[in-house]
Design brief:
2 helices; mainly alpha; 75% helix; 64 residues
Length: 64
């Protein structure tokens, strides 16, 4: 499997965006305990980090 960091990052971003959309699209008021928008943003950040690591590893392996 080539560059699994990239695809893992993409999946974290997609999951975070779906979670964020579900949280923001809720019609009922959400209590702070049920509010998962911070977790959603965290998953998106993890995804961006994994994609960056994937690009760095790909760049380092192509230089050798």
């Amino acid at each position: 499997m080539k560059n699994w960091f990239f695809w893992a990052g993409v999946s974290f971003i997609i999951g975070g965006l779906i979670s964020l959309a579900l949280t923001l699209g809720a019609t009922a008021s959400i209590s702070p305990i049920e509010d998962t928008s911070n977790y959603s943003i965290g998953w998106i950040i993890v995804g961006i980090s994994l994609i960056a690591i994937g690009f760095i590893k790909k760049k380092n392996s192509s230089e050798k």
